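User: Predict bis(5'-nucleosyl)-tetraphosphatase (symmetrical)'s structure from this.
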Amino acid sequence: MTDYHILSIDRDTLLADLSERLSVKRFEHVLRVEATALELAEVYQVDFERTSVAALMHDYAKEMPDAAMRELALAYTGDPLLGEFNGNLWHGPAAAEIARSQFGCQDVEVLKAIAEHTIGALGMSVLSKVIFVADYIEPKRKFKAVDKARKVAFEDLDQAVLLKMAGSIRKLIKDSELIYLPSIENYNAFVKKTSSKTI
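Assistant:
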């Protein structure tokens, strides 16, 4: 058993809760994201406990009914525009709200890492970037540039963040889906921040 200092429950209790509320496929994904995030945390010198908590919580709300997920997401963000989208955007902020209101997490950086793992944010912490990228490159992810993304992730975290942002926006355009405006703002900020503009 691993005691967490930033949650009101320990790791074993959180794992048991996750295994009950998530499908086997989703639960296994969460464990792979945690393992990948901890590898990145070692490289980028991020606290392991905070990394573990953020990784395990990142998809906590993923399989909730949409109405409940939306309510939690809006409670966390206070952004009515977010309510016009769907669970793909809601589940991160919803999970952060659960971590805060149900599990007593007061660590703002951890809450942001949970909330920001889908589209990123302006001024992301290294922890947020680690969770964002780990979710993108965990071992069972399969997409055209996954090998490149995995290599880049351990060499240039900002560039890996940019790769994920660009890939997500490309997919939304390809599928003729609405794009949440902050996604574009986040992408533009990382293009400016990184030295290479090649995606």
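The chain has a mean pLDDT of 94.
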